[in-house]
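Deviation from plan, reported transparently: iron/sulfur cluster complex.
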Amino acid sequence: MTIEMPSPPRIKKGVIVKKYSEEDIYAESERLYNKINQKERWTVDICKTIAPLTLEINQLKKEKDVFLIAHSYQTPDIIYGVADEVSDSYSLSKSARDASQQIILFSSVRFMAETAKIVSPLKTIIHPSPDAGCSLSDGISAGDVRELKRLFPGVPVACYINTTAEVKAECDVCVTSSNYLKICERLPGDKLIFVPDKFMGKHLQNSLRGKKEVIIYDGECEVHAIFTGEKIRNWRKRMNAQGINLTVLSHPECDAEVLEESDIVGSSEVLITKTIELSENGEKNVMLITECGTVDRILAETKNDLNVIGACVMCKHMKKTHLEDILQSLRNPTSEQIIELDDEIILKAKKSLEEMFRLAE
Ligand code: 13P
Ligand code: SF4
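Because the crystal trials were delayed, the predicted structure below was used instead.
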């Protein structure tokens, strides 16, 4: 498999790690090495440096009965070392809601941890990296949504899950990358306000043309905004000249031109599942237009020979969380690492998420 990937994260200093026996370290590093399955980047030696951290995190999780969920864009040491569940934003919000444990550690960006608190307000939600934001959720405020509602009175407002709790509280329904088309189509009326992702908004405008007018906002994901249709066309041309067919898979946060050039469009989890399915059916060359974590998961979870063409882009916010942050926040979280939201905001934002669950099923 060939792909240009960033180097494994460096081990952060500052957290004193417990000592484990040589046998325990050896067994754990072998487990990590095999699970991550990127033998050149995540070598046994690198896995050995991680092993004391994953051993203690897993031990603490058991002792404190913590459910650790991680988004697919987290690094492989977190995903394969310590996470109990890994998926996309929709699936993880449901897992947080349904978890039997009363403490959830959410390894991801802030808006996802806030979503877990909204759907399960009585649980303690630990978020190891309070400053891990997102260009979409940081680009719109509750005031901006109120202004849109003032300009277009009575028009239903759908917000992408990549928003703060305050923004969700102003909206009628929340959507994710796996259900935005289905949910927006089902909303009443012939008009709809969609915030904040302009690319997803344009995709909605194209899909609902003739049925609904979609009023959009000017937000974008700084990662997915980088990709262009031209890049895909050039790759296809080069590959076709060699007689190679390229299957292109993209995330809906990309520009409409990218989506038009793609064979499959879907959430991070859909892209992983579809690529693995393709490889099982003999497909050899795929191009993934998304964040690098998606590629890491595919490399770990397919046993087939697959060429992942082109270069993924890394989300600096998603990569802020290190195993050390998880360990420290499990041992003794600071007040910033525990999600606290205003009761009224929770109540209003919960309605938009419950409406999402109802309309998505
Ligand atoms: P998913 O719904 O695919 O998890 O996307 C969330 C996200 O932030 C993608 O950039
Ligand atoms: Fe936000 Fe984009 Fe990062 Fe996803 S990839 S968390 S949308 S900045």
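The CA atoms of residues 62 and 303 lie 30 Å apart. We consider this an acceptable substitute for the interim report.
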